[in-house]
Amino acid sequence: MAKPPSQPIALPKIDLEEKTLEVRLRLKGKAALDIADYQRAYQAAHGQAIDAEPLILNILQAHIDADRGFQGWRKGNPAKG
């Protein structure tokens, strides 16, 4: 088993029981390597393996939640309907 990261990873433990939406995505090169490394870091930090799909979705959600510019834009441009 890999040792935990020296600093906590930003992504908290993921609730795998959440409702999901199917997304097809093909990663190659550096992005594919980064996700594989993040999977290893996640396992070291949280003690359990995780598939790429929920990991990628939660990384994306964490980015959206942290993007203050987007959040400000969203407040000023609410979805209609």
Number-wise, the strands total 0
Head-to-tail CA distance between termini: 49 Å
> What sort of overall outline do the alpha carbons produce when their principal axes are compared?
globular
Order of helices and strands: HHH
Helix content: 40-55%
**Average predicted local confidence, pLDDT:** 86
- Round the Cα radius of gyration to an integer and report it: 15 Å
What proportion of the residues form beta strands (DSSP E)?
Answer: under 5%
- The biggest beta sheet, please? none
Q: Briefly note the structural class of the backbone.
A: mainly alpha
Q: Output the number of helix runs.
A: 3
Low-confidence stretches: none
Describe the protein in words.
The chain is mainly α. The protein has a domain at 51-81. Helix content is 52%, strand content 0%. It contains 3 helices and no strands. The protein has helices at residues 29-46, 52-66, 68-76. It is globular. The N and C termini lie far apart (49 Å). The model has no long low-confidence stretch (mean pLDDT 86).
Summarize this entry quickly.
This protein has helices spanning 29-46, 52-66, 68-76.
What secondary-structure arrangement, pairings included, does this model have?
Layout: H1 29-46, H2 52-66, H3 68-76
For the structure shown, list the relevant keywords:
81 residues, mainly alpha, globular
